[in-house]
Amino acid sequence: MRRPLVGALTTLLLAGGATVAGAGSADATAAPRTEARTKPKAVDFAGTVALSNCSGSLVRMPGSADNDPALVLTNGHCLESGMPAAGEVITDRPSSRTFSLLNSTAGKVATLRAVKVSYATMTDTDVTLYELNTTYAKIKQQYGINALGVSGDHPTTGTPIKVVSGYWKRIYSCNVDGFVHLLREADWTWKDSLRYTPSCNTIGGTSGSPVVDVNSGKVVAVNNTGNESGERCTMNNPCEVDENGQVTVRQGINYAQQTYGITKCFGTGNKLDLGLPGCELPKPGEDEEEDVMVH
Fold first, then answer.
1. With contact defined as beta carbons under 8 Å apart, do 141 and 176 qualify?
2. How confident is the model over 254-264, as pLDDT tens digits?
3. pLDDT digits 0-9 by tens, 77-104
4. Which sequence spans correspond to the domains of the chain?
5. Model-level pTM?
6. 48-149 has which CATH code?
7. Class (C level, CATH) for 8-13+21-27+39-43+153-260
8. In whole angstroms, what is the distance from residue 78 CA to residue 72 CA?
9. SS3 of 61-127
């Protein structure tokens, strides 16, 4: 997985401190030019956060109100208590974790603090959502920063995207290459993962970065893993498994977990409600991992 920052400095040194491929460059696949083409949104660091070992973002759901407690989104494997086990779901756990809030030029403008882990899991997806001790309105008033909106829609292949790392203060540019039925890495399995085109060559410390649709400016996924050395289904070497159990290994290719499903699970007041219609996030005490024979 795009691990928390354990060994990420080594990764960077081995890479010779190279600049990020694709950052600030043209998208890997240009969108067709049509009269109805959406004007791309400017994507910068405003609303992203840096954690002690990962990246993340200040986010709001389609139904969030200005005076709701604000939320921070990152990976499940970035959880301060350690990576959740396969099948484990954490909800409403007290937390006092802090986050460095960034402005458009990646300058730190504030330290935000959590009051709890609203939701965390590495089953079916790889996500942690923290509830903060302040509201969107107060953050906007005090620091001039808006939260990133999470899209309620499934992204599409070919969409230009940017992966924005608050930890490294770097932006990766590429396109949605496609979607993976099951993505397996060590003990964990993720469903309908988003695969990048090659120029999003993310490294350790980019875990939890928001994946932003350039056309809408909304978050469509959260960056989480990549196959580093070509191994099959091992730690830091996820493999793709199709509906028939056929395995594909793509060395050097990176992935994210879609976030549209999260929006179906938060109700009034930004409160987690896993019983809401359309909410398919795993629930505590149930293991929904799909059993597919791997060939």
1. no
2. 999 999 999 99
3. 999 999 999 999 999 999 999 999 999 9
4. 8-13+21-27+39-43+153-260, 48-149
5. 0.87
6. 2.40.10
7. mainly beta
8. 12
9. CCCCCCCCEEEEEECHHHCCCCCCCCCCEEEEEECCCEEEEECCCCCEEEEEEEEEEEEEECCECCE
